[in-house]
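Dear colleagues,

For the upcoming journal club I promised to circulate an example of a predicted protein-ligand complex. I picked one with zinc ion because it came up in last month's discussion. The inputs are reproduced below in full, followed by the predicted structure.
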Amino acid sequence: MDQNKLLSQLNAFTRRAHTLDEVYLFDVILCDNEIDRDGDCFSDSALAELQKRFVGVTGIFDHDPRSGNQNARIFRTEIVTDPERKTKTGQPYRCLKANAYMVRTDGNADLIREIDAGIKKEVSISCAVGKQICSVCGADRLKAPCSHIKGRTYGGKLCYTTLDCVNDVYEWSFVAVPAQRGAGVTKTLGGKQTDPEKEMLRDACEKANQLLDQLTDDLRKDVIRLCYRNGESVYAKVLADSTIHMDAGALSRLKHSLLTGIQAAEGGRTAPQLMPEQDQPKSLTEYRVGGKTEV
Ligand SMILES: [Zn+2]
């Protein structure tokens, strides 16, 4: 859209006639429907709601000490669809584009040059959403958090959260590091700034969970090996299959029971559970490959 047409839209919006010398017009991508680095994406209806609510909202440049009262305001928004480009979930790519203006002053000449030069192009938005839907099980994480972890795959299904039911928007601002890959957007859900301490805790929890998952998988493999140690009977298969539903604690107890049983069956032989924990998988493999059952 050309500048004069935009200017007439702005003047209709502000009910005061500005000239192109007085105002600086620019556009920003506020957000899109791609999964961002937090593992979130906006639903189509959320984008439509954001489109309505962001008209008239003020942008801030608070990271800049020179900013003072340098404000920009959105006077027009539109949803732009790129049918050629698909999101990770296979949807046509859609983004929320906004036209903003600033009244030119001596104080914001530098800022305008930076926006023009594309130095300032990453935008963050603050909004509140009423629903955060898990892509795997459909649970609303706000009401009933599920155990699925964003970014992981469950049965071939990528876990991410769809943000829906936008019930408020707060502000938008230029930032250094965007969360949304395509749009150059970070977002603050619920209108609160993210707490760095909480973020660190969340990262630590996620790492610990990943490690626990891996150890549980290893433990499960050990137990399955032990189940089939004496051949593939129906009982061995039932027991081995049941491990899929067991957590680390249950697997550990089962492993201990199986090893105790093996030790009892083998009489005086040196039993594997007397070896250090880290040697067990190796020794079990040897048992399985080398010589099963000298009982
Ligand atoms: Zn879920």
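Two points we might discuss: The radius of gyration is 29 Å. The beta strands are 23-32, 40-42, 58-60, 72-86, 92-103, 123-134, 153-154, 157-158, 161-174, 185-189.

See you all on Thursday,
B. R.
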